[in-house]
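Budget justification aside, the reviewers requested a transparent look at the raw inputs and outputs of the sequence design task funded under Objective 1. We therefore reproduce one unedited record. The lines immediately below are the C-alpha cells for a 286-residue chain.
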C-alpha cells in the first residue's frame, strides 16, 4: 500500500511540474482566413475585372470609368460581409463560437473594407500613371482608337475613395445589426441613398460658401459619417441578440408601409442621381 501511494504521489508531482505547451489563443488568423475563404470569389472576380478593364476599356469609352469598380464593389460587399450569418442561417452557431463579436465584426470590416480601399487605390494609381493609355498605345498606333485626353478630375479623385467607402459603411453596419434577410438584401439601396444624400448636402454647402465644388466639405462629411456609423455598429453589434431561426425571404409585417418607404426612397434616389449627373461635367474639371 505504501508503494502504491509513493507511485501516485510521484505521478501527481510529475503532472504538476510538467511544462505546459503555449497555446495560440489569438483568433485573428482564423477569422481573417475564414472571411477571405468565404468571400474570396467575390474579391477575385473584381480583381479579374480590374485587369481586363485596364486592357480593354480604352477601346470602348473613357478610361475614367474604371473608377466605378470601387462603387460596384461597395454595393455588393457591404451586405455580403455584414449579413452573411443571417443570409446563411447560421447566426446562432456563429455567436456560440469562441471568437467574440468584437473580433468578428472587426475581422469582417478589415477584409471587406480593406479590399475596397485597395481596389480604389489601384484605380487611382492606374489613372495617375495613365496606365490605360500606356497599354492602349498599341491600339492608338494601329489606328483602332483615337488618343483620349488625360483625366484630371481633381474632386473626382477624392470621391473615388469617400463615396464607395460611405456606401460600404452604411450597408455593412445596417446588415450587421438586422435579423431580416429582406433588409439585408436591400441594405445596398438604403446605404447608397444615405451616402448620396450626404454628398448632395456637401455639394450644396460648397456652392453656398465657395460657389464651386471643391470637396473641402463634402468628402470629409462622407468620411466622418462613415467612421461614425461604423463605430456605432461596432458597439451595437456587441449587444445584438440572437435572432430567430432564419426563414425564407418573405414580406415583412406592415409590408404596405415598407413599400411606401421604398417607393419614396426610389424617388429620392432618382432625384439625387439626376442632380449629381448634372454636376458631373464640373467634377471632371481640373
Amino acid at each position: 500500500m505504501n508503494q502504491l501511494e509513493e507511485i501516485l504521489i510521484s505521478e501527481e508531482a510529475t503532472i504538476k511540474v510538467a511544462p505546459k505547451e503555449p497555446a495560440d489563443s489569438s483568433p485573428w488568423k482564423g477569422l481573417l482566413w475564414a472571411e477571405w475563404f468565404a468571400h474570396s470569389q467575390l474579391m477575385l472576380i473584381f480583381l479579374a475585372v480590374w485587369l481586363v478593364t485596364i486592357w480593354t476599356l480604352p477601346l470602348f469609352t473613357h478610361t475614367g470609368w474604371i473608377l466605378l469598380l470601387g462603387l460596384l464593389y461597395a454595393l455588393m460587399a457591404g451586405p455580403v460581409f455584414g449579413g452573411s450569418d443571417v443570409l446563411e442561417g447560421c447566426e446562432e452557431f456563429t455567436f456560440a463560437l469562441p471568437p467574440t463579436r468584437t473580433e468578428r465584426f472587426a475581422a469582417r470590416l478589415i477584409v471587406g473594407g480593406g479590399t475596397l480601399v485597395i481596389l480604389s487605390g489601384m484605380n487611382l494609381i492606374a489613372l495617375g500613371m495613365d496606365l490605360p493609355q500606356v497599354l492602349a498605345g498599341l491600339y492608338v498606333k494601329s489606328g483602332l482608337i483615337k488618343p483620349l485626353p488625360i483625366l484630371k478630375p481633381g474632386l473626382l479623385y477624392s470621391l473615388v475613395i469617400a463615396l464607395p467607402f460611405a456606401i460600404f459603411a452604411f450597408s455593412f453596419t445596417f446588415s450587421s445589426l438586422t435579423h431580416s434577410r429582406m433588409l439585408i438584401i436591400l441594405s445596398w439601396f438604403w446605404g447608397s441613398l444615405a451616402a448620396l444624400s450626404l454628398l448632395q448636402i456637401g455639394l450644396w454647402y460648397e456652392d453656398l460658401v465657395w460657389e464651386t465644388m471643391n470637396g473641402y466639405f463634402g468628402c470629409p462629411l462622407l468620411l466622418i459619417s462613415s467612421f461614425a456609423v461604423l463605430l456605432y455598429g461596432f458597439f451595437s453589434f456587441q449587444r445584438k441578440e440572437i435572432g430567430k431561426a432564419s426563414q425564407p425571404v418573405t414580406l415583412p409585417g406592415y409590408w404596405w408601409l415598407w413599400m411606401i418607404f421604398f417607393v419614396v426612397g426610389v424617388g429620392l434616389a432618382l432625384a439625387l442621381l439626376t442632380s449629381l449627373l448634372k454636376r458631373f461635367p464640373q467634377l471632371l474639371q481640373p
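The chain has one domain: 28-283. The radius of gyration is 25 Å. Computational costs for records of this kind are itemized in the attached budget.
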